[in-house]
Structure formats: C-alpha cells, structure tokens
Amino acid sequence: MKDKKIIGVNREYWIDVIKAVGIIMVVLAHTLPKNNFVWIYINQFHMPLFFSISGYLYLCKGKWREYIKKKVVTLWLPYIACSYLMIVVTRIVELVTSVNTIRFSLKYYAKILFLLDLGPLLGATWFIQVLFYSVLAYDGVHRLLCSFSIEQKTKNTCMTIIALIALVIGVNTSLPCRSSVILNAFAFLHLGYLFKVKRSLLDKIHPVLAVMFLVAVGVISTFNVTSFASNTYTYKLLFICAAVAGTLGLIVLGKNYCGGNSITLRHMRYIGKNTMGIVIWQFISFKVVMLLQVITYHLPIERLHDYPVIYDSTTGIWVILYIGAGVYGSIIICKILTVLGQNIFFYKEKSKSVDL
C-alpha cells in the first residue's frame, strides 16, 4: 500500500495513527499496576516507539537557532506553563483535602524552569524533558557532521556509531537529571531516522513478520521488566531487542494498514495529533474518575492524592473510564486552554490597535 500524504505538509497519514496507538498504550499503562503483564508488555517498547517516530519525522533544515526556538515553543513553553498552572491547581486540592504535598521554594520553581523537575501531578511530562534535550542534542550532532565534506552514507554511519555509543552508555549508567535516559532517547531518535532513510527496506518487511515481532515482545515480557523513565531493566539486551522489535512491528503494520481514510483511522489520526496534550494533562483528567471512585466506594477524599490512579478500586469499567478521561479529557482541557490563550492574545492585540 502506498503512503498517503497529509495535504499541505510532507507527512504520512499512518504516523499519527501509530502515535495514537502509542499514547493510548501510555494511558492504559498508567492505569495498571506494575506487576500486570499488559503493563510489562507496553513498557517494553512504547517510549522507544515515540522517540523513533520523532526521529522518523526529523528534518535538518534552517538554522540551529531556529530549530531551538521551535522546540522551545512546542516543548519547553507548554511544559513550564502547565507545571506552574498545576501548582495553583494542586494548592486548591490541598486546601480542600487538608493534605499538604506541594514544595514551595525558589529552587523548585527553577528546576521546573530548566525541565529538571516534573512539577505537581505531571509524572508523564518527564517525556517532554527527555525529548527536548535529546532532539536538540541529535540536531546539533547531525548539523556538526553535515558541516564536514563527506558523503551522506558516511555521515549516516558516523551518526549510527554515535547513537550506539550513546545507547551503551545510557543503559549502563545512572547519570543525574535523566541524562542516561536522554542518551537512550538519542539512540532511538536515530533508529527512527534510519527507518526513514531505509524506507524501501521497511516496505519489504511482510506484515506477518511484523506481527511476529510483536509476539516476540510478549515472550520477552515474561523474562524482562522495563522502565524507560527510570532506566531500569531486568536484562538490558532483552530491553533493546524488545524495543526495536515492538517499534519496528508497529511501524510496519502502520505503513501497510493505517494509510487509509476511514472514519476510524481519521479519528485515530485526530488523537495522534493531540498526543502532547494527552501527555501533559492525563493525570489531571484522571482526577475526575478518581473522584467518581471516591464517591462510589465511599473512600476518604484524601485518596484523590493517590498516584496516578486509585489502583485498589480500578478494574474493568474503571480502566475504560480512565482511558477515556486520559485521552479525551486531556484533549478537551488542551483545546479550552488553547482557545483561552488565543482570546487573551487577540484581546491584547485589539487593545493595542485601539490605543493606536
């Protein structure tokens, strides 16, 4: 099946579908206890999948300062804005529940400013921190290699060697400020970039083989427990194998079956285009379902501070509600804040024009 492009941009339809599958897996994993097989399976490759997609979409164009500015606007600003806003929200929850958890200090605020602290109730935003620093590092190294008068094939080989070195150092160290995780992300960014460079080879992988890759991840999951965020693995080599197999399997299936224009695929693409909002707001959206659980099971109001969900009361329909809230509730919050931000900006611009 030939890849279909989104009108107006050099982007493939299936990518957003795979991003949607990935973010749904993220939300599902956050509703499950860590001894659950599905949680173990998802954690084998869902983060490497996202970094690989970012690498697949990577383009070295314009000046480095422009690239940094773009990432500051799309990653850094949303991160700190939502973190500071959630400090206010958390303080309100604390006043209602009479439980104090927030840390007020200039050091705390400064850490958020430099993406060194997750902020309150925003555990999944470690991904934004790691993505921000890893893509800037990847772009910088890529541009450095491009400054030399060598063949593109040689540049790709050098980049691959650097990525492998980064991965070896990353999985075998525990550097501060998630630096080891950033090195791992750097490696998977390059894996995604190689998928794009070797796109013709991807097209030769049969979908049945892709399914076998995903089955292999399931087999590995019986032996290996992985946490990309904390950089811990039962067996490091099995983590790498599962991460590559799972990522490659989903990408091949996506290229073959997710390039159409059915209602389902259009809806999945919509979710895929809103992954950043889901990453940021899912834990806040969970609070709605947690409140329902508190009311239903007559739990203490303090259980709203459980993180990320109330596990001992979460089975069956509650998992579905958490997924719905995590995905759609997050999108709604993001859209509302976007509209409010646009209206505030429009009001300021209108006021300036009136003053003139």
Structural account:
There is one protein chain. With 356 residues, the chain is mainly α. The protein has one domain (13-349). Helix content is 71%, strand content 1%. The chain contains 14 helices and 2 strands. Strand 1 (226-227) and strand 2 form a beta hairpin. Helix 6 (126-146) crosses helix 8.
Q: How is the secondary structure organized here?
A:
Layout: H1 13-30, H2 37-43, H3 46-57, H4 64-97, H5 106-113, H6 126-146, H7 152-171, H8 179-197, H9 199-203, H10 207-221, E1 226-227, E2 232-233, H11 236-257, H12 263-272, H13 275-296, H14 317-355
Antiparallel strand pairs: 1-2
Summarize the amount of helix as a percent range: over 70%
Strand order of the largest sheet: 1-2
- Head-to-tail CA distance between termini: 57 Å
Which band does the percent of strand residues land in? under 5%
Uncertain residue segments: 1-9, 345-356
From N to C, what is the helix and strand string? HHHHHHHHHHEEHHHH
Average pLDDT metric: 85
- Class inferred from helices and paired strands: mainly alpha
How would a textbook summarize the main sheet? 2 strands, antiparallel
What is the number of E strands?
A: 2
Number of domains: 1
Number of helices: 14
Shape: globular
If you compute it from the alpha carbons, what radius of gyration comes out, rounded to the nearest whole angstrom?
A: 21 Å
Question: In short, what is this structure?
Answer:
By secondary structure, the protein is an all-alpha fold.
Highlighted features:
356 residues, mainly alpha, two-stranded antiparallel sheet, globular, disordered N terminus, disordered C terminus
